[in-house]
């Protein structure tokens, strides 16, 4: 049966939207343990070490922000739910800055992870690209280390309860709350105001459904996602007040709260990888030039060409933390991470190098680091039946949990069930 305690992913909402697909939405995690067997690449970093709660303001409430947490083996693990946009392409900045840390969550929490294809249609999109990107994104995350013996992986639209809960929550959502959402105001303006789709206004309710459906304990969340989490918390409290407690009990329910109020989980900060063409700007999928980023599936020759042509400077030697040399600091930092060396070791090795000597060294280190991911990705995509099985089993497991939530809410709302 479904367990009552859950943890979130939108635990972390990761922005990785492609130009061909809409909505630079979020990635939030949703993971659940699975009986399937899948060996990840062996990343051993633990995610959160010591509890360090912070207080952050909410629109109507306050929540505790957990920057780290360690679950006792004798206690049932908390649940984390996370969703990510179907981009089909992930770059080095996404991977080193967030995904490696996300993957580490599965060692501490019960986790569910899904591809948010329903969020990807709020802006104009290519249907064929959406279908392909959904599968490719799932395969990439598995290749990056998501372990299906620890985490459930599925596609959002394969669990009907996401849409069901969104509709039920919509009846309790004041339209004024949605009109105040920053992303709606920005994106509807870009779409020409009245030409913006209704889904662009209401998708935060779907995101709240993604979070509340699995009784998440924590939500990994980035700066740009705090407002969405606040909405989910406000909606949960509103529905609990409207339909929970004695009202629910009179209708044959257990009484008490219908939804758990999720807390934010701020992941350990990953590397901030900058553009190869501008050391002061983050590496981004939305940058017009592909030369500005290294994609996880770039070939060895393409990686070598991008690093060879990347922006550098005319200073002698290499050094960290010089404000006048942002590209130098960025490239040394990338080399440090992918090589597994310390900052001091890199500085000692590279301080007297020229760019002509350092760039081939960096190329070899990046290629070696990405090679296992690329090999595993090719294995997964070559075996279509395997990926289908993983996604089907993940959706089945998520549905078991989700149906309990839907049944409880329908009962509390007075539906004949």
TrEMBL record:
Keyword terms, alphabetized: Aminoacyl-tRNA synthetase, ATP-binding, Ligase, Nucleotide-binding, Protein biosynthesis
Main location: mitochondrion
An example molecular function term from Gene Ontology annotations: tryptophan-tRNA ligase activity
One GO CC term, this protein: mitochondrion
Pfam families: tRNA-synt_1b (PF00579)
BP terms from Gene Ontology: post-embryonic development; reproductive structure development; tryptophanyl-tRNA aminoacylation
Enzyme Commission (EC) number: 6.1.1.2
UniProt cross-references to InterPro entries, sorted A to Z: aa-tRNA-synth_I_CS, aa-tRNA-synth_Ic, Rossmann-like_a/b/a_fold, Trp-tRNA-ligase, Trp-tRNA-ligase_bac-type, Trp-tRNA_synthetase
Localization in the cell: Mitochondrion
Family from the record: Belongs to the class-I aminoacyl-tRNA synthetase family.
Protein name as it appears in the record: tryptophan--tRNA ligase
UniProt source species: Brassica campestris
């Amino acid at each position: 049966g479904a367990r009552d305690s859950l943890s979130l992913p939108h635990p972390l909402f990761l922005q990785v939207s492609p130009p061909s697909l809409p909505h630079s939405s979020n990635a939030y995690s949703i993971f659940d343990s699975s009986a399937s067997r899948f060996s990840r690449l062996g990343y051993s970093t633990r995610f959160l070490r010591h509890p360090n709660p912070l207080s952050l303001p909410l629109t109507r409430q306050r929540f505790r922000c957990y920057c780290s947490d360690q679950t006792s083996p004798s206690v049932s693990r908390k649940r984390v739910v996370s969703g990510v946009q179907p981009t089909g392409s992930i770059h080095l900045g996404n991977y080193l800055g967030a995904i490696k840390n996300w993957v580490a969550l599965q060692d501490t929490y019960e986790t569910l992870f899904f591809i948010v294809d329903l969020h990807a249609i709020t802006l104009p999109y290519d249907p064929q690209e959406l279908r392909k990107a959904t599968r490719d994104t799932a395969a990439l995350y598995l290749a990056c280390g998501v372990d299906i013996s620890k985490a459930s992986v599925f596609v959002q639209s394969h669990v009907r309860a996401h849409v069901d809960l969104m509709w039920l929550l919509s009846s309790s959502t004041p339209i004024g709350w949605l009109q105040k959402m920053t992303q709606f105001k920005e994106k509807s303006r870009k779409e020409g105001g009245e030409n913006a789709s209704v889904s662009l206004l209401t998708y935060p309710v779907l995101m709240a459904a993604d979070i509340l459906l699995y009784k998440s304990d924590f939500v990994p969340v980035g700066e740009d996602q705090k407002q969405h989490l606040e909405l989910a918390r406000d909606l949960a409290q509103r529905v609990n007040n409207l339909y929970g407690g004695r009202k629910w009990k009179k209708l044959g329910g257990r009484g008490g709260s219908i939804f758990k109020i999720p807390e934010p989980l701020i992941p350990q900060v990953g590397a901030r990888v900058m553009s190869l063409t501008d050391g002061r700007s983050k590496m981004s999928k939305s940058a017009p030039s592909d030369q500005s980023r290294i994609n996880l599936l770039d070939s060895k020759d393409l990686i070598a060409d991008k690093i060879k042509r990347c922006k550098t400077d005319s200073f002698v030697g290499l050094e960290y933390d010089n404000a006048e040399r942002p590209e130098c600091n960025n490239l040394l930092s990338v080399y440090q991470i992918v090589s597994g060396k310390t900052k001091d070791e890199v500085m000692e090795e590279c301080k007297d190098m020229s760019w002509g000597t350092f760039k081939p060294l960096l190329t070899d280190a990046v290629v070696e680091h990405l090679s296992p991911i690329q090999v595993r990705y090719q294995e997964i995509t070559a075996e279509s039946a395997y990926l289908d099985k993983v996604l089907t089993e993940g959706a089945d497991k998520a549905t078991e949990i989700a149906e309990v939530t839907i049944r409880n809410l329908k009962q509390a709302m007075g539906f004949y069930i």
